[in-house]
Amino acid sequence: MSIQTDNIQKLVERRAKARLGGGEKRIEAQHAKGKLTARERIALLLDEGSFEEYDMFVQHRCTNFGMDKQHYDGDGVVTGCGTIDGRLVYVFAQDFTVSGGSLSKTMSEKICKVMDLAVRAGAPVIGLNDSGGARIQEGIDSLAGFGEIFERNILASGVVPQISGIFGPCAGGAVYSPALTDFTLMVKNTSYMYLTGPAVVKSVTGETVDHESLGGASVHATKSGVAHFAAENEQEGIATIKELLSFLPQNNREEAPVVPTDDPYNRTDDALNSIIPDNPNKAYDMYGVIRSIVDDGRFFEVHKDYAKNIIVGFAHMNGRSVGVVANQPAVLAGVLDINASRKAARFVRFCDAFNIPLVTLVDVPGFLCGTQQEYGAIITNGAKLLYAYGEATVPKVTVSLRKSYGGAHIVMSCKQLRGDINYAWPSANIAVMGADGAVNVLYAKEIKADPENAEAIFAEKKKEYDDLFSNPYQAAQKGYIDDIIEPRNTRFRVIRALEQLAGKQQDVPAKKHDNLPL
Hints:
Blueprint: H1 3-19, H2 24-32, H3 38-45, E1 52-54, E2 77-84, E3 87-94, H4 105-121, E4 125-129, H5 140-156, E5 162-166, E6 169-171, H6 176-180, E7 183-187, E8 192-194, H7 198-205, H8 211-215, H9 217-224, E9 229-231, H10 234-245, H11 286-293, E10 299-302, E11 310-317, E12 320-327, H12 338-353, E13 358-364, H13 371-375, H14 378-391, E14 396-405, H15 406-411, E15 421-424, E16 429-431, H16 435-442, H17 444-449, H18 454-469, H19 473-477, E17 483-484, H20 490-500
Parallel strand pairs: 3-4, 4-5, 5-7, 6-8, 7-9, 12-13, 13-14, 14-15, 14-16, 15-17
Antiparallel strand pairs: 1-2, 2-3, 10-11, 11-12
């Protein structure tokens, strides 16, 4: 055997060993927990044969606590690039079979390398997290490594899409990297995120709680809003990431890819003409409106189980990606509260950062009142949504379907927040408040002074108010509404507006950065 052949053989053997991570037994243990390995996840995520791995032979440099005797090629994270549906992405996947996926300084260097490459190449970066946290044996070096990753997350924010998949534990300081990315996906029953674990919680507060109840996928998808998606298993989670990417551009200088469709752009839907109930206090399902107007009825929802009184997600209209924001009358009457405002604001800002037009469907009776909301800073949180719409420079098309009252009217992409095209259905009510509340304020003394005729006076004044404000015509007369459209034509009118705005350019004042009300 020649020296060259011998060298090649050694390379093949070392690569094979590196691909085993912590070894066969640890891989079996990973599978026994219902979890895939880092490489199996990457294989599912990327197009077959497209993965280009970096730093396969990197090893940690720690000599503390016997670590000089524990060396594995790759050191607990698999990094590289590949394609998804032919489009370039960069990826890192933590390998729990090596030191529990705990972060060393060399691991952080590998992760930072692919993040830097992603920004330079203008391609999304996907992190698949499965780690026990900082590698304790490395002390401050592991913390420095986290800091380097966080800084990359910050610098890449708004430049390339960043997606985090939580496929196992993610605890302590490690949680901040996913929190800094654009979208976070968790897997039910096998992944969790929290700053301090159940044992620490019990010792400090006396509260007994398990991993799932403290920081599981269901908790973060429904209560905290930390997770945008909660998948039943890893396969579904990876499929969700791939579908999400189909709506996104590669970076902030590009537009999302156009997806061919056979759904006619001028398709009408007579069902929309009767979807609004005659009773203004009766609910209807906004999903019916959304699916009626988007291509092929396909709507990819974000934060589906969190703050359900507002709906956000992606769709295509005439093949082009759009972000949809819609009040949901079927939940809390579609009222805006703290969580709904934060949820929508974050989504609007993402769409604006990545050139995705916004379609807003409005049916909002106002902001939720009460001490809980006021003490929780509904003022500041509502301002986040107002700010997000006001600063957005992407095409913005708004359709008011029914109620659009008070401050909530302003917040939901009104004309004064640089809404480009604002439509209304004939059923739209655009006013400071609803008729009942307005009459009670405007005519309280008159009604109180004549109790015998109070009911008749109330009815008369309500009709007067309804004739003036319980329709979209006064707003249209003042130019705040560009047109009043027949509901059945909504898809066609929105698509035509988006086509007109495709080349939109909007100048903004020079500034270092804004100061969003946080």
